[in-house]
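Follow-up to my post from last week.
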Amino acid sequence: MTELLLRNVRPMGGAAADVLVLGGRIAKGAAPDGIATVDGAGALLLPGFVEGHTHLDKTTFHQPDWLVNEVGPRIIDKIDTEREWRARTGHDAGAASLAMARAFLAQGTTRIRSHVDVDTSGGTRHVEGVLRTREAMAGLQDIQIVAFPQSGILARQGTESLLDAALAMGADIVGGLDPCAIERDPVKHLNIVFGLAERHGKPVDIHLHEPGAMGAFSLELILERTRALAMQGKVVVSHAFCLGDITERERDALLAQMAELGVGIATTAPASRPVPLVAPCRAAGVTIFGGNDGIRDTWTPYGSPDMLERAMLIGLRNNLRRDDEIALAFDCVSDAGAAGCGFAGHGLAPGARADLVLVEARSLAEAVVARPPRRLVVSGGRIVARDGILVA
Ligand SMILES: [Zn+2]
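User reply:
Got it. Predicted complex:
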């Protein structure tokens, strides 16, 4: 069923209205006779949420036992621990990603960008698993796959050709990782990443955890290559922690270049690190959007497949208190997420894909801070979940 009339709903917390869905899209005009109708009873209507940076393949969310986390403090500890754990347990990325994707859908997320590990111990096994999940979720949820060299490219001979294979088998985006701090040869690493992007005609999304001047240097190299290859609008920097711990003048100079080149920022807004703040990014014209990063995996026990929760955490980290500011936090998991990831037809305007979420809240700000249960989730005009339970 891709035809539907939602009666008495309040789009984005505004005045009550009826919303018509025809052919899986939001439509204008009179509802045809006999169309399936849902009484919204004045509930708040939101567009389907966008998860802009997660790792569907890594999660232990679906497993019966709690994963006891004993990982060391450095990023390299987390990388090594995970690789060993994956080899030891034979972690099934297909089952993990499917469970996580379904949990996201039940909570209203209809679009996901997932980084997926590619390395010399797992090969392209995780990408194959998430490709199966994408197939299983087709029509219900859009999943973008980033071929992500979690263990680095340079230190492990053969990773570049595995990335090449992952892109050939259907990964959408070329990933990268800390060109200085992990790879220790930023020019070589970024030339491989952008070379793969050029060969495959695919966008780039690079994990950049590097702090301060080191991260700013890597970012400059990313911007140089974006310009040289005319990849405007096709590059995302994930985390970009460095933008939170350089001077405002240095930050603003980098943001101005990012705006000019259409380079977006994916943020998880962690409490534990300096972060690029939402307000100066938006003021500079840079698209900044939200994601959980990993959820209940060997990196972190935290995270949840609930993008209203992520919007709240972005709001808290950015000290967003006013209702109009909290709307910006929500935008990070909505319009900005769709724009940053390149998901077309997002929103509540006529012609948009009918991905819709109905919640009991008096305002958008209340929906973010209270994270009420999802009364109804619609994807492409089909009802896919009621009261947090999948029906499709
Ligand atoms: Zn990540």
